[in-house]
Amino acid sequence: MDFENVFQTLWRQKVVVGAVILIGLVAFGFAITKGRKYSATSTILAVSAPQSNSAVLDPQQDPTHSAISPSDLPSLLHSSVLLKRVASDLHLTAKETEKLGAKIKAKTSLASDVIPITVTDSDQSLTVKEANTVSRELQKYEQQIAMSRYDLLIRDLQTQLASRRAALHQIDGQIATLSAADPYITADQGTNAINQRLVTLEQQRETLRTTMTGDASAAAIAAQRPGVARDLASKEIVQNDPVFQNLRGQLGKDLAQLNLEKAGYTEKFSGLAGLQDQVSRETASLNAATAKATADPRKSETYVSALLDKNKADAAFASDRAQLASLDQAIAGMTQHLASSRGEGLSIAALRRDREAGDQAYAQLSDRLAVAIADRSQAGAINSIVLLDEATGAAPTLLSRPPVLAAALGIVFLWLAITLAFVADGSDKRLRTRTTIEELYGSPVLTSVG
Amino acid sequence: MRPLEENFRILRVRVEAQTKFPALLVVSSAKRSDGVTFVACGLARAFAENGQRTLLVDANTANPGVARELALDPIRPGRTTTELSPQNGEIPRLSVASLVTPGEGGVVGDGRLEDLFDEMRKTYAVTVVDAATLPTSSTALQLAHAADGVLFAVRLGRRVEAADYELRRIATDQSARVIGVVPTKAKVRREARARAALPIAAPSEARPRLGTAVEAGR
């Protein structure tokens, strides 16, 4: 396609070209009169996280790093939250607030954390205020986001802790219920405690059996002592009996007299028989008195003491037997208890294990909560976005300068006009050119008339 | 821009280069508003002005318009070949005739056109026939078949239609000798009509009786 064809095409589509150029002129006039814009730029520094850390809201990240990545900054700048805050600070109307988002631009770069934020507006002084307010509000908003990432975690941890506490209370309640039902199995190592108790009881029983054997021997010995002490008791009784003593004294005297008589006289002495008879009577009386005095041996302290000793030994033996019977009963009961409470022991052991695990988990959650609260404070205290340079003035935008605007619009609309002309010509199915006609009819065009 | 008359002179020269005289030339088109009458009248005029004895025949059964184009009184068609009487126009050496019967949509002397054409060739150096559109007229088909050369008029700026493709196919089927295509411009046609409405010179010679010649040829 040579220039002639190009011009022919443009000429054919002169209406399109003319319309586009006219629109361009109107646009130029409008831009010059009403579309004058100013731009102001404030600069911030975003301390971004390393590239490997993609989850910028991850609470595990360094709290000093920014909660947002530079690539997300444009969307944050156009968020309704930020725009509303800026509008509130600058007392913008609802209509101005709607348009504010389109006026804010941020130029982010992978190579640098320094980000210029440019605001474009038709009011020169308002443009400066908007640029600075946007940067300041962005700082606050980022700080809020940085803390919010921990807020979420803290809330979650608190919920988990509450859940753990409830679970521990439930386990405690179950253990308390089982404890009330059976104190042994609730002690530490329940079945072991029962076994220990059994061992103790059996040891006590063995000890008691040994004691009982001794007490039995002592009782046997004590049982013989009253018999042995009977003679002594009789002697002790008669010796302490004055009647017996008198009789025995009188008998002794009479017996001595008799022996004396016998020594001085013969058998034929008449007084000897009487004396001998008296001695016999006195001997019978003495025997009768002895028999009478010794009839009750309890009059003897020795006998009574022996008898008391025997009774004590018998009582000790009986007591031992009673204790042994009691121990046997206790051992039997404990053995039965041990057999019946094995299942409950397992249950409570599981409950204790659960409680121990719950305690550990609770402790871990508590630690994490403490760390999260500390990180939140740190994140709140550190500004990850720093305002490096405030906007001090607003300059007319490049396209607000008439020569540049004219050149730009001229280039754009000329290109648009040419493009549209060729598009219109390409889609035009009308007979316009010699070539088209010759191709259609298969004959040469002789000449055109008119 | 070249004057309109010069455009027709160029057209005449281009046609002369491809035609032996005496010649019968048929101007037709694919669509009614392509400017067939305009081209036929202009070409006939150009031949006459060049000194060649020329007959312009209105055979456009769909839209007869030679008289209107040349600002003449309505041309009386002959009901038979003997009645076909060419009328002298105001241009020297240019005669006009009509084969169209008003209200009937046909042409005088259907079935004997070949004889009529022979007579025309004997009498006139150039006969230019304003024919109806080829795809819609049997007379136009006959004319195209019998003609020494066929010109297609096409109006610039209109959309390409199926009739354009059909025209090319029909011309091939009818063994028509297509000389070329003449693009026209509707706006210029109106100007040309205005100029044509001006008084033109009186004929310098008596008009021939075409019907007599036809009769003589029998």
Explain how this protein is built:
- The complex is a heterodimer of chains A (450) and B (218).
- With 450 residues, chain A is α+β, with helices and mostly antiparallel strands.
- Chain A has 14 helices and 5 strands.
- Chain A has helices at 3-12, 14-33, 73-77, 80-90, 94-103, 124-181, 183-186, 190-239, 242-264, 270-293, 301-340, 342-381, 402-426, 434-441; strands at 38-46, 104-106, 114-121, 385-389, 395-396.
- In chain A, strands 1, 2, 3, 4 and 5 form a 5-stranded antiparallel beta sheet that branches.
- Chain A is rod-shaped, with a radius of gyration of 64 Å.
- The two termini of chain A are 26 Å apart.
- In chain B, helix 6 links the parallel strand 6 and strand 7 (178-184).
- Chain B has helices at residues 4-16, 36-49, 66-69, 113-123, 138-146, 162-173, 186-196, 210-217, and strands spanning 23-29, 54-59, 87-88, 94-98, 126-131, 149-155, 178-184.
- The radius of gyration of chain B is 16 Å and the shape is globular.
- Chain B has 218 residues and is α/β, with parallel strands linked by helices.
- Chain B is 38% helix and 18% strand.
- In chain B, helix 1 crosses helix 2.
- Chains A and B meet through helix 14 of A and helix 1, helix 2, strand 6, helix 6 and strand 7 of B.
